[in-house]
Amino acid sequence: MYCSPKISLVCLAIAAAFPAAASDAAGGEAPILDEISVTATREERKTADVPQAIAVVGKEALAEKKMFNMKEALQEIPGVLIDSKNGGFDARLIIRGAGLKAAYGIREIMVLRDGVPLSDPDSFTRLDFVDTQDIERIEVAKGPGNLFASGSAGGAIQVFSKSVFDTTANNAKVGFGTDGTENYHLRHGIVGERHALAVTATHRKMDNDWRSWNAFDTTQTSLKHGWILTEQDVLESELSYAEANMQLPGAMDQTLFESFKRTGEQEDTSEAWKNSGRYSKVWFFNSRLEMERGDFTFKPRFYYNTWYHYHPVTGLINETRDWVVNLGTDLEASWNHGNGTLVGGVTARKEEVPDSVKYQYRDVLTTPGGRIRSTLSDAKGELASTSTSSSVLSAVYLQESWRPGPRWIVDAGFRYDVIRMEDETNEIKRYDYASGKYVAGDGFAKTEKTFRLPAPKLAVSYRLNDAINLFAMVAQAGQVPSSGEISSNPDLDAPVSRNVEFGIKGRSRDWQFDASAYSTTVEDEIVQVNTGGVTEYANAGKTDKKGVELSGSFNLGGGFDVGGHYAWSDYTYDSFSEPVRVGGSVVNQDRSGNTLPFVPRHQYGVFIGWKSASGWHARLAGLNWGEYWLDNANTEKYDGWDWVTNLSVGYERDQHSLTLNVDNLFDKRYAFEVKKDASGKVTYTAASPRQVMLTYRYAFR
């Protein structure tokens, strides 16, 4: 089948589907293989040629995982800290310290799906948009300095779904596992002379009966259409719908944690709020056109998503009575000139939250004095507040990728974001942490904030020889505060991150590696302050983040390969005055020189994989998090965890494949997160014990 070189999306899908044919075409030795990245530069480029620390989790790596959660794909990337409370779509994600302030969810990191931002203009990200069974590859660009990351200093993660033009993605899958785990997935598509159509349906569920209040289920469907308008123009569109129900378990005190370590079960939480969760419905539409005219390429994109959620959290229950609307466009153009590529564009997005409300919990147990001891359900009670809000983001970006010689690439880029946020709230009741009761609210309040965030970058890549590339980068990016943070503290400033980085990348037929060293200073970093149960946000004066990251793999022959990753992180407060509640008053405590909590000094892991020509394959990986401080005051440490081991064993023959995944093979009992608030209270969030899942996949041909 002929594929016009101008239809790059179609060609890329076909090339990805037949890697063996591509490698054997010359009839000689296998070439040096490298993943392709577009997230860091908006230009298709081998990862070795990208002058930034990036990671690509490709199709082959994803196939070995059950892929219930993004954690499974990202947990072996140095500098990326990720875990999940229930193995569903929730995740706490931190990249080089960015995202640390988020008690729940993802902030400070831009997450995209096929070029569409899943992060709101105020940086909060929802992963219930993503069907993890329909992922082709995932790209991770760390730190400031890429053109996709609007108002985000932590970097960008882009999820690419399987192309509508890729018929090799057609399959039926069914899986069953421990803890009530079930997975059903069907993808079928057809490709004609000019049109392609694909339908996808997925249902995932986990009872997680090792812990109370921890069930998860989601049902997702999508319809994709591809249209080859001409030999130079391709239009791809997708409409998808998802429903997700997720119970979020509470943390434990020391007594409950010791019981969990003995039994492997968590029967209760020490927190009063025992019925947190998020129940959502999401519509997602994306349409993107690629047009080529000689050396010019134009890529307009339009997207629309709307969602509803019912979200019980600490103290109150959130609900969007009217669906939230997020509308946006990205108009990108590129010019391939004699010495490189010039990429530029404009972005505009608006999110409207027309009727967001908060309720008191209806069913609670109280002390004789009226303090709430425990919730009994997630049912809503009396109305606590109403609000309307909107966020508008507009941006321009431009980057010249200049190639002054065959060994050099120079990326000089600039992005400028303007984010305007408005909120009107009528607080009727609020939960008072000091008394443990619902009390009269503060009434009507209106907040308007505008942030202007310039993000320049200069990066250089030099090919030392056929196997080794050197790179250096300096970049700056601003971080927009979330609407919840601004509601907590309207005086918050936008943090500014400045990063200097050097690295080396190696690619060969039998080995590959990435190594980088960076130094990031953050002015006005937003940190989470918890004074006896009250979560507030404040600007730290300045933080210094220094780190080294290494990853690599080596082909031993005989079907075996080994590899590993390591990250060393040294994050300290240069100047920070933390407000601490003492009695009935708040006193500022100097934390200058202290280490940021939760981020381990050492994070590392190793793996060994094996593939046989007969169709068998296996992979064993061990992961480690070193010790870390529990609080800003640096009064106590958690030891972290050692050698949590994951195993994958599979067999493939013709159209059939069978895969056994065992996570936490040796059933270690540990906490993936331990925190200590300013009042001295320590809480533990349990990691999942051993989980086993068997998956059968049938590939349509």
Automatic annotation (TrEMBL):
Q: Which InterPro entries match?
A: Beta-barrel_TonB, Beta-barrel_TonB_sf, Plug_dom, Plug_dom_sf, TonB-dep_rcpt-like
An example of a GO molecular function for this protein is: siderophore uptake transmembrane transporter activity
Domain TonB-dependent receptor plug, by residue range, is 48-156
Localization (cell): Cell outer membrane
Q: How does it sit in the membrane?
A: Multi-pass membrane protein
Alphabetically list the UniProt keywords: Cell outer membrane, Ion transport, Iron, Iron transport, Membrane, Receptor, Signal, TonB box, Transmembrane, Transmembrane beta strand, Transport
Query: What sequence ranges are listed for the domain TonB-dependent receptor-like beta-barrel?
Result: 274-665
Q: Does the record carry Nucleus as a key word?
A: no
Q: Which domain of life is it from?
A: Bacteria
Q: What is its main location?
A: membrane
The residues forming the signal peptide are 1-22
GO CC terms, sorted? cell outer membrane
Provide the family line. Answer: Belongs to the TonB-dependent receptor family.
Q: What PANTHER family has UniProt attached to this entry?
A: FERRICHROME IRON RECEPTOR-RELATED, FERRICHROME OUTER MEMBRANE TRANSPORTER_PHAGE RECEPTOR
Protein name per Swiss-Prot or TrEMBL = TonB-dependent receptor
Q: What is the lineage of its organism?
A: Bacteria, Pseudomonadati, Pseudomonadota, Betaproteobacteria, Rhodocyclales
